[in-house]
Amino acid sequence: MTEEITLESMTGVGPVTTRKLNDAGIHNIMDLVVRGPVEIAELTSMDIETAGKLVEKARKGLVDGGLIQKDFVSANELYKKRQTIGKITTATESLDTLFGGGVETQALTEVYGEFGCGKTQFCHTMCVQVQKSKQEGGLEGGVLYIDTENTFRPERIVSIAQANGMDPEKALDNIIVARAYNSSHQILILEEASTLIREHNIKLVVADSAVGLFRSEYLGRGTLATRQQKLNKFVHLLVRLAETYNVAAIMTNQVMHSPDQFFGDPTRPVGGNVVAHTSTYRIYFKKSGKKRIARMVDSPHHPEMDVVFALGEAGVIDLEDATKKKKTSKKSEPKEEVIETPDVSIEPLDSEPKEEVIETPDVSIEPLDSEPKEEVIETPDVSTEPLDSESNDLK
Length: 395
Description:
Layout: H1 15-23, H2 29-35, H3 37-44, H4 48-64, H5 75-82, E1 87-88, H6 93-99, E2 103-104, E3 107-113, H7 119-129, E4 142-147, H8 154-163, H9 168-173, E5 175-179, H10 183-191, H11 193-199, E6 202-208, H12 212-217, H13 224-245, E7 248-253, E8 255-257, E9 267-269, H14 272-278, E10 281-288, E11 291-298, E12 306-312, E13 315-318, H15 319-329, H16 334-394
Parallel strand pairs: 3-7, 3-10, 4-5, 4-6, 6-7
Antiparallel strand pairs: 1-2, 8-9, 10-11, 11-12, 12-13
């Protein structure tokens, strides 16, 4: 439908306007809806009213084609439509329970936590899971990975793909990595993402991390307003891409410690209310020894709950699977211990009972032989003497 309704076919759009829109990275009517009238007016130097009319025409064309939602729908229709939303399984029972079946499309899922809690490992796992068939819980699509901290590792994709029985080369071919070097470049990558989404059948967009570059460039309270405005633009653009193109969006976020928190966990995500209000689902990862804990902090319909998972060769795994592997690896050691234990147990059993059995009869026999003899000898002597005296008197 997007190919049939081109920019040139829209009323009021001539060759000059089409050229301006193409130079600004807007190539179809879907891009018009994603960008919005304010941004289009800034990019093309047209007035805000003209840009608003263009966006409204593009929106009506998408509504007529059934690509986006109508203005007014019943809750029953909306419920039926949400039943068809795609979900990407995490291949773990714990996280699937937390997400209600998997990471949803048309939504922005934010994962925040300290370093080493498993955020990047979770993103790598989802890059492989989304490529699986729909019967296996995937979406049979590609991935756009926006790397801002140079943490993407293709070797990790290979190990996760091999653990899931997939071809590592095909898994790598379906992942497009964009290295962002500054915050402006990060926004530019997302603005050009619409073309990649259509051409490469992208079903998952990952931003790892979304706030890192903004946090490093805009320092101090004097630049806080500018930073929040640009960060707000990036996050909202990511949400509109997910909703318009029916893809899943995942972004990781850094944390800070609140100095005024005297009790409880002082960890707080960076980005303030701008990121908090824009994210559809907000999940908190934290470390607890070798295991990890995931908590659903904010969701429109999911309950607030905690689940436990672990990290392994297959990426994020259930804690039960990790314990099973440890038990199987230790099964070869008990053979040596079983040989040693009977030797130790036989020696004390043979030595102790013999000494106890010999001592007990000697102690019990001596008092029994001495006491009854004395009593038996005394009783007849006392009884015979009076009997003899009484008999003599009678005579």
